[in-house]
Amino acid sequence: MTLGVLDLSDKLWRGDIGIEQAHPFSLIGPVEELADGVAFVPSFANVSALRTDDGLVLVDTGSAPLASHVHATVRSWDASPLHTAVYSHGHIDHVFGVDLFAEEAAAQGWQPPRVVAHEALPARFDRYVLTAGHNEVVNQRQFSMPGLRWPREYRYPDVTYRDRLALSVGGLDVELTHCRGETDDHTWTWIPSRKVLCSGDLFIWASPNAGNPQKVQRYPREWAAGLRTMASLGAELLLPGHGVPIAGADRIRQALTESAELLEHLHDETVAMMNAGARLDEIVHTVRAPAHLLERPYLRPVYDEPEFVVRNVWRLYGGWWDGDPSRLKPAPASSLAAEIASLAGGSSRLASRALELAEAGDLRLAGHLSELAVQADPTSVQAQQAQAAVYGKRAATEASTMSQGVFRWTAQEAARHAGAGTGQGESHEA
To answer: What is the helix (H) or strand (E) element at residue 121, kind and residue range?
Structure first.
């Protein structure tokens, strides 16, 4: 980065640059002291450091690949022992920086650092171990990182709490508050004497990650309530889990309040349609986020999308069935696809029509037909090529990391299968 993080934040806020030029997951840089005894390390995820008479307090500790960067960067600012690390939540980009500080403490004869987190966090780590293979595949796909390996070992917290916890470290009072939001184990941190708020991933310079289609349940209603509580504090410096800090009480209040407004709208409109008996398909294609909110530089859908939040609200209250009786106990997808292909004149006809629709700009419908073509005949090179072309276009036209990841993965897999094919594979079709 050539700009300081607060200068970059100001340019984003004013619209001098777009969020695509400072994507909240792309910022890695040197430590900056933003207030007296308060430093910020841009990383994946960000790390906030607080200086006390008894050593450092870190809010989040970064990811495994960047643990050395975080340690060296913090040490370039302050050489004091790490006294306490607070996990804002258990996502793996936030919890893998403690070990280097612990090794340093052992070598120096210091007390080992303690880790503090919400009481639900250990169960998250247990689940990550149980489903390590699944999480590996999901994250390889989501982030287009085929070499990603999911960790099997974690640094569990030494101290946990339920609702609120007041810490006093070296003369500095630190207040932790639980808020179910992106996760069930989320903590936001308030330092009243400095008027500094560390939000974790409850604010990330993007439309809230309340709908991730490949991850476990999110909690938009409680998330919004937490954002409104944070907005009422009068914070003068907001240090987020991703993206750049925000300075100034008015800007912080606006960003948090409007983030809450976006979540409340999606939640309430979805619930209203559920209460009226609507099916999920109708709700997904009806409920929309307020356009003026999505235009805010801190609410652009560059990671998650409002459409996915709607689906997550349904999952929270309505279960897995979408209201379509044919999908309660469906036929195998391949059988349905083969029947449709037979009626249409073959898998090749579905593939050709998918390309026509994609060329005309109807990528959603094109996606359905290309998938049906492949399901009807996975050996068809034509079907695989059509799917690769359709989903390549879909990936290129999407703004969110999540849609890009799934569509790019689909296109790459289809292209790989097409390259391995030897023929059209249409012999069984009418």
So the answer is: helix 121-130
Alpha carbons 45 and 349: distance in angstroms, whole number: 47
User: Which residue from 125, 317, 140, 139 is spatially nearest to 220, judged by alpha carbons?
Assistant: 317
* Alpha-carbon span 392 to 86, nearest angstrom: 41
Helices (H), 319-428: 333-344, 347-360, 363-376, 381-397, 401-420
User: Is-above-0.90 flag for pTM?
Assistant: yes
Best CA proximity match to 342, nearest among 256, 245, 240, 430? 430
The CA distance from 366 to 349, in Å, is 12
- Domains identified in the chain and CATH numbers: 5-263 (3.60.15.30), 331-420 (1.25.40.880)
- Nearest CA among 298, 124, 137 for reference residue 205: 298
Q: Which tens digit of pLDDT belongs to each residue from 355-406?
A: 999 999 999 999 999 999 999 999 999 999 999 999 999 999 999 999 999 9
CA angle 92, 313, 89 (to 5 degrees): 20
